[in-house]
Amino acid sequence: MLPTEFSCLLGLLAMAGLAWNPYPALEQSFHDLPPVTWDPVEQFKAFQIQYNKSYPDAAEQQRRLEIFADNLAWARQLTKEHRGVAQFGVTQFSDLTEKEFRQLYQPSQPSFSDPRLKMGGHPKLQRPQTRSCDWRKAGVLSPVRHQKNCKSCWAISAVGNVEALWAIRYQKNFELSVQEVLDCQRCGRGCEGGYVWDAFITILNQSGLAKEKDYPYIDQLSHKGCQEKKKQAWIHDFLMLPKKENYMAQYLAEKGPITVNINSRLLQNYKKGVIRPWVNCDSKYLDHYVLLVGFGQIHNFTYWILKNSWGSSWGEKGYFRLHRGSNACGINKYPITALLEGSAPRMRCPR
């Protein structure tokens, strides 16, 4: 189990529904992404209608148009650099500066150093390495959540990890309460941001989690504080995995989804395809937790499949893909997973 000296201070020092439908495969050619219209004024008009955006006066309208145009130019450059592998364009974040986007969802203190988490006792993996794995096809993932105005990606990714492991291990599909993690977090930061290991420790301290329907998400801390609800699922422990992408892939295929921490910079304008960062995604600046749910390959080009927490209208129905094999955006820095008691998983990851 966890050492008693594991504290909130360690985290602060280390880092500054019930629809269970398989998700279709997203295999595609590098050259079949649809063209993008780059006229900023027309795009801005369509953007305002699509996302119901309005501004208090003409000056703010003009300022947001200029920001939008800058983001559109940046998206065009990124799409050009990706040479048909990925597409960037208009998203719900297109009228925000990079600083505003960072402040919207990400904690104020990104990670620059390793937390001293438990590293030993890594399970020996038995199955041979596969070329692809997609847990969406198994129907073990909960619907994509939207964190809204709460910096709760750390809690959402941890809860999603537990949900998937219970579905794989025990064939029990349910949505668990993210709000319980926020309200009952031992460090008390909640919607200010947090660390995934604090989410797992909270689940351990609470002796499990309630169902989402019994303790619903409200994207802020509850005025009632931490509430006692009937527990639906629990964990035995949690573990940081080796920082090796091949091991991460094999563990993912054999055991189930894992949480990872990445640099979110290229997600602001992401539309679809495989993100292949070159110099635009510092692997040391990590500010966003997501759930790693699979991997695949197109024409010998390998990628990860990740579940985000910005709603199903963002990206590829709430998911995105990231190049595998180059530590893209720092994906192999903090691979962490909950551990369950009991027998080995009863299902294989669909290819």
TrEMBL record:
Name a GO molecular-function annotation: cysteine-type peptidase activity
| Keyword field contains Signal | yes
Q: Matching Gene3D superfamilies, A to Z?
A: Cysteine proteinases
**Which GO BP terms, alphabetically?**
proteolysis
Q: Indicate the secretion signal residues.
A: 1-19
Q: What SMART domains does the entry give?
A: Inhibitor_I29 (SM00848), Pept_C1 (SM00645)
Where does the record place the Peptidase C1A papain C-terminal domain? 129-339
Q: Where is this region: Disordered?
A: 109-129
InterPro entries membership: Papain-like_cys_pep_sf (IPR038765), Pept_asp_AS (IPR025661), Peptidase_C1A (IPR013128), Peptidase_C1A_C (IPR000668), Peptidase_C1A_papain-like (IPR039417), Prot_inhib_I29 (IPR013201)
User: Keywords on this record?
Assistant: Signal
Q: Where is the Cathepsin propeptide inhibitor domain?
A: 44-101
Per its UniProt record, what SUPFAM superfamilies does this chain match? Cysteine proteinases (SSF54001)
Which Pfam families does this UniProt record tie to the protein?
A: Inhibitor_I29 (PF08246), Peptidase_C1 (PF00112)
Q: Which PANTHER family match?
A: CYSTEINE PROTEASE FAMILY C1-RELATED (PTHR12411)
Q: What family does the Swiss-Prot or TrEMBL record give for this protein? A: Belongs to the peptidase C1 family.
- What protein am I looking at? Cathepsin W
Q: Organism, per UniProt? A: Vombatus ursinus (Common wombat)
